[in-house]
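Lab manual, section 2.4: Encoding a predicted structure.

Procedure: take the sequence of the chain (358 residues), apply the prediction step described in section 2.3, and record the output as structure tokens. A sample record is shown.
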Amino acid sequence: MRKPKQYTPKPKKKITPRQRSGDYRIFVGAFPDGEKIDQIQQLREQIDWQTSQITPPHVTLAGTYWRSGLPNATSESLLIDKLTGLAPYLKPLSLQLGGVYTFGERVIYLGVLPTDKMLAIRNSLMAVMGKDKHRQFKPHLTLAMRLKDEAFSTALAELEESAWANGRFTIPIHELRLMQRGPSDPAWRTFHTIPLTALAPKVTLRPVSETDLDHFFAHQQQPAGRQMAAFAAPDPNDWIAFIDHWHKIFLDRSIIIQTILVGDEVAGHVLCHSSFGEPEVGYWLDEAFWGQGIATAALRQFLPQLPDRPLRARVAQDNAASLRVLQKCGFVITGEDCGFAHARGEEIAEYLLTLADE
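Recorded output:
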């Protein structure tokens, strides 16, 4: 009979311990504002009043960190100096929010898309502040975190049937806040702001080339972009239909179309075509370049090339970002319409806009 081998337990993986105590806490977050955020705050107040009063709606980008000392700005003067030096290298970003999710059975939150720009800012912050508590970073906007049992289930069920679960919206961010909360503080407070002041890249237009089509095909496959544009190709992955569509555009000399460049990168396209006998403008921008004023800059460069007035445009009524772009360029709402949007699989409402003679 063989002698059984002696059992030797495998050594446990070494895990960096999380700091769990100190005199006060800090974090850096993005605090969006606007009508949508006001609605979110009202929602938070309805389902979890206590959480809604501790901090406004925000997305944490670095933190929280426990710190030692008095909970005031003086205790963080060295960090503030470092963040001040970092600010000129941080670019403005956009928060892309939507979808209702949970952490366990206590926390309900809105999902936030972890874009490359967001992750770049987070990495820069952690290079200055050190690693935070998140072993896996999942950006989110907390709606409730103190609900239990039936209250949690009821709130979650209602939210999953609401527009917050299915809608997607984008909000530009031009500054971050360094937040602090001491043991006797009823809520978090801002004690330093970090402007996102990196210079915006140069936006230029040029004629479309065949090599741009790979970029445009990738753009039309972006889910958030299709949701916002609404009126897009029925099948975003159909390369043959895509190429056929673009070759027809190249052959139609009445269509004016140009590629949007940000620096040397292909960021999208802008065009003018005939719709119901009138010139109509439109554009498509890569999600990576949203919220930086690029669409507005491109359209402002494009419009002087179009001598005919009035010019028309149309936009889904829930596409607030594109509506703002058009209004900044002088378009005004002159009507409403509805049509079937392939990207959403349903009929949606549109605004009709006009740019008249000055």
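Check your result against the sample. The chain has two domains: 24-195, 203-355.
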